[in-house]
Amino acid sequence: MNPAAVVFDFDGVVADSEVRANLSLAESLTAAGMPATYDECLRDYYGHNWQETERRIEARYGRPLPVDFRETHRARARARYMEGFDAVPGVAEFLDGLETLPRAIASSSRAEYIGWALGLFGLDHHFGEHVYSADGWDRGKPHPDIYLAAASGLGVDPVRCLAIEDSPTGARAAIAAGMTVIGFCGAGHIVDRAAHADMLRGVGVHRIAMAFDEIGIPATAA
Q1: How far apart are CA 5 and CA 8, in angstroms?
Q2: Which of 191, 189, 210 is nearest to 42 (CA)?
Q3: How many CB atoms within 10 Å of residue 92?
Q4: Which of 44, 51, 167, 179 has its CA 20 to 30 A from that of 145?
Q5: Short-list 159, 130, 163, CA closest to 9
């Protein structure tokens, strides 16, 4: 497939953030009297927007989160990110190689956080206004809405888009949008890459990449 555009998930594809995000969430939940581990958070909330994550947390513990939980958690997470947050290896070179091929981000995370991180990594010029966030949406991933919004914003038919996703939740969303989906296994939170690849194949991704240099989209793919 020669794609007309590439749509990137953010956490675990552009930002190597999932370890810090889920460690922070486990700490924040435990501090709020809702004990949780890193592995539980990665298993249960990975890939979802905050609205779905909150629904899942409250269903698990049978009570609402504290009113100030999200702000308190955000401060904790930001402090952890500043300990050494970085982009996924190879993403900068991959983006450079796309040259003029249109690209967008379709993420469950807050737009403000995405913009901050892209600036930190020096990658914000690659996406411009084409950063699409499902935060605040009732229907986040695995529904296709955020991927459809990204394709619409780029002015490209979804079936002509290549999506790069690391989570089963996100992969389902991109597949439901009609995109060709690469299951990406190159970020730091993926310890057993073979098992993660099998999980992504199980939800129907079209191809697996263990690193960006395995994707190999030519710059003339438009």
Answers
A1: 10
A2: 189
A3: 16
A4: 44
A5: 163
Q: List, for residues 193-204, the tens digit of each pLDDT value.
A: 999 999 999 999
Q: Domain 5-17+85-214 in CATH: superfamily?
A: HAD superfamily/HAD-like (3.40.50.1000)
What does residue 187 show for φ and ψ, rounded to 5 degrees? -100, 165
Please provide the size of the chain in residues. Answer: 222
Domain range list for the chain: 5-17+85-214, 18-81
Q: Could you check whether 5-17+85-214 and 18-81 share the same CATH topology?
A: no
Q: pLDDT class for 220, splitting at 50, 70, 90?
A: very low
179 in the Ramachandran plot: left (φ > 0), alpha (ψ -120 to 50) or beta? beta
Give the C-alpha separation, 66 to 91, whole Å.
Answer: 37
- What SS3 class is residue 131? strand
**Which class in CATH covers the domain with range 18-81?**
mainly alpha
